[in-house]
Specification:
8 strands, four-stranded parallel beta sheet, Rossmann fold, Amino acid racemase, Asp/Glu/hydantoin_racemase
Length: 309
């Protein structure tokens, strides 16, 4: 299967499944349901106590916070890792950035739960990854997967680490930019969910969704092409046309690219509206949190109240 090649991140603890994006493709191979009591392979325990040898590194980075990336879709996690490191290169100099660890329980193991609408089971799988990140010495986490936040917002035990919420980060940027009506493009699950409408509404902004037919087009292109590393002019034109309709017919003044593959197809230069790239915005916010340039996150799963600073 044609797939983007990205260098593996340091400390990655799980294999990547290149066939899936932010939520399950309707046609998939069967996987056993992920058990709720996942354990860390290295120790056979869910104890999040970090290994002292991993909690700090010598030099300037000892004053920075270690980031954990909770991967749930392959390309989104790879883009998040790369953009976080590149943020460091840009702001700190060549080859420098805060410590970062990526953990990835293969997405396919959550597919039966996604298909069944069982977000609580998905949350337990994601929580197990957060626990493993805590054991590596990570101080906080991000999840560069928009749809996963439907599960992360479910009630449950507090996650082992605090994290930045992707929709809160995007909504904050939209508010700073002075936007009032934001188009939301993503997977069918994300567009049908309330994660983005609620985050935007909390800042006095309106979320606008494409028409049902346009939603099907967006979702079909994501799963037939984008997750397979296929980026065609025909699909780019289809997305541009949808964004143009949202601008002219709905009065949108920005578009949230709320699926991790969409920024690989639609660049700011392509879009008729200013773009809000959820993956890169999240990575930039993570860099700022890691270096003390923004308040440290406090969200540990569940509903996002109070909202992130």
């Amino acid at each position: 299967m044609n797939q983007h090649a990205s260098p593996p991140p340091a400390h990655a603890t799980g294999p990547a499944d290149p066939e899936h994006a932010e939520h399950p493709h309707p046609q998939h191979r069967e996987h056993p349901e992920q058990p709720s009591n996942l354990i860390t392979p290295a120790t056979g325990t869910t104890d999040p106590t970090p290994d002292p040898a991993l909690t700090s590194t010598p030099g300037p980075s000892s004053t920075w916070h270690h980031l954990g990336i909770l991967a749930h879709s392959t390309e989104g996690a790879a883009l998040s890792f790369l953009s976080f490191c590149q943020e460091g290169f840009h702001r700190l100099g060549d080859h420098d950035h805060p410590d970062v660890t990526l953990d990835y329980i293969p997405f396919g193991r959550s597919m039966p739960a996604w298909d069944a609408g069982d977000h609580d089971t998905v949350r337990r799988t994601l929580a197990a990854s957060v626990t493993r990140l805590a054991r590596t010495g990570a101080a906080f986490f991000i999840c560069p997967d928009n749809t996963a936040h439907l599960a992360l917002e479910r009630p449950g035990d507090a996650l082992a680490l605090p994290g930045l919420h992707i929709a809160e980060v995007v909504a904050d940027q939209a508010a700073r930019d002075g936007r009032t009506r934001v188009a939301v493009l993503g997977t069918a699950y994300t567009m049908a969910g309330d994660v983005y409408p609620r985050a935007l509404a909390a800042r006095g902004l309106t979320a606008e969704l494409p028409s049902p037919q346009d939603r099907r087009t967006i979702n079909d292109i994501i799963f037939r092409e984008l997750v397979n590393g296929v980026f065609t002019d025909h699909s780019r034109r289809a997305y541009v046309d949808i964004i143009e309709r949202l601008a002219t017919e709905r009065g949108c003044d920005a578009v949230a690219l709320a699926c991790t593959e969409i920024p690989l197809l639609i660049t700011p230069a392509d879009s008729p509206l200013p773009t809000l790239d959820s993956t890169r915005l999240l990575s930039s916010a993570a860099f700022e949190a890691a270096t003390g340039a923004r308040p440290f996150p406090t969200w540990r799963g569940g509903p996002t109240t109070p909202r992130e600073p």
